[in-house]
Amino acid sequence: MQERVSCRNVKCSYYTLIPTQPGPLQQFGRTEVIENTLNPDFVRKFVLDYFFEEKQNLRFDVYNVDSRSSNISKHSFLGQTFCTLGEIIGSAGARLERVLSGIPGKKCGNIIFTGEELSNCRDLTTMQLCANKLDKKDFFGKSDPFLVFYRSNEDGTFTICHKTEVIKNTLNPVWQSFTIPVRALCNGDYDRTVKVDVYDWDRDGSHDFIGEFTTSYRELSRGQSQFNVYESLSNRTCFQQVTLLSFKVESEYTFVDFIRGGTQLNFTVAIDFTASNGNPAQPTSLHYMSPYQMNSYAMALKAVGEIIQDYDSDKLFPAYGFGAKFPPDGAVSHAFPLNSDCENANCVGIEGVLEAYYECLRTVQLYGPTNFAPVINQVAQAAAGVMDGSQYFILLLITDGVISDMVQTKEAVVNASTLPLSIIIVGVGPAEFDAMEELDGDEVRLSSRGRVAERDIVQVALWGCCCL
């Protein structure tokens, strides 16, 4: 992530950027000096590694240059501000403006941050090739040809970046189309040499060389044309050709692309209030409200929520509980609002969610069973109403045990896999969560009633055991 900085209405000549990413506070860098101005636009940019799953705190100090000394203490302090890298990325147009503070009774001006993702050539290219009149290499047949693509390196060597499938017993093969990242093919340099070798496959691995040719990404991007018909020559000169049949490029969009494009995150919380958590009045309970430290539920909520809230512009978070008897009638509910407002379950910020959670513990009766499907379906219904790409929903489910309605939950997840929705399930406590891993389709895509999920939308993590 590349960051540009400007200041307004301050008597400054340079500023210092100090990120407090995991580890002790350390100075990251300084801008150049801009003389005699209240509204500097600094030219120097700062490149920071961006991690969505981390809260990356930043502090910005502004100084007026009073001497040539590199010692900050020798210059006049004009103000400072704090933010996170996520707040910059999550702001409209990745532009965040903050008020400088730090000098009592004095207006210190404003500071403006603009972030942009550095281009790393994320395009994917799909191409298909064929060949004609290849050299015959098999004594009792023709050839079993395949192609090997090599990317050229700075030192003149070559690195294999793709192999096609083998087409058996032919001198005129048509290989299947394949997809390869552009950076793997040319490392983002469109004119870099791409070498292609043609081989005849042999069972013992001693493949026979048929021929080779060179090209580049720029040449290939012309698509099917006379420019992309290559004569492939071997030691034994013969007329043989490799032809590009098709070439297509697609962009591989990232999380930052969607956020910069205006997509807003909607964060919803659901907390397990089943009796298996233990009596909240007892220290052995996972819901125990200790005067000295937060319980496991509160810690998980705060850790995940403080990261995601930077990308939620209104900071209004619907928060629900499930598996408890909810007043006034004492009926068991699996999607009751933590703030007791059935018309509006929104809480203001993560601190508001925590306050509602603590208050809810005093009014509900922990019960059961542990049903996930109702709250998943409720959030899915909201996501189904916004399919234009402007919003993306994230549901955080925090639980202590095995899901009681696994069949219904699987169906709810499969149905929701077509929607702009992701689900984070955090397991707390000592229970076994192996059955829950089935919902996480990293290796095997989740299915229900013969339907396979369109995509993997569930991430399962154990609090204190792994990173989200």
TrEMBL record:
Gene Ontology cellular component? plasma membrane
Q: Which Pfam families match?
A: C2, Copine
* PROSITE patterns recorded: C2
GO biological process terms held by the UniProt record: cellular response to calcium ion
- SUPFAM superfamilies this protein is in? C2 domain (Calcium/lipid-binding domain, CaLB) (SSF49562), vWA-like (SSF53300)
Domain named C2 is located at 1-100, 107-230
Swiss-Prot/TrEMBL keywords: Calcium, Metal-binding, Repeat
MF (Gene Ontology): calcium-dependent phospholipid binding; metal ion binding
Q: Which InterPro entries match?
A: C2_dom (IPR000008), C2_domain_sf (IPR035892), C2B_Copine (IPR037768), Copine (IPR045052), Copine_C (IPR010734), VWF_A (IPR002035), vWFA_dom_sf (IPR036465)
Q: Which domain of life is it from?
A: Eukaryota
For this protein, the record's PANTHER family field holds: COPINE, COPINE-9
What family does the Swiss-Prot or TrEMBL record give for this protein?
Belongs to the copine family.
Protein name as catalogued = C2 domain-containing protein
Organism expressing this protein natively:
Electrophorus electricus
Q: Which gene holds the coding sequence for this protein?
A: CPNE9
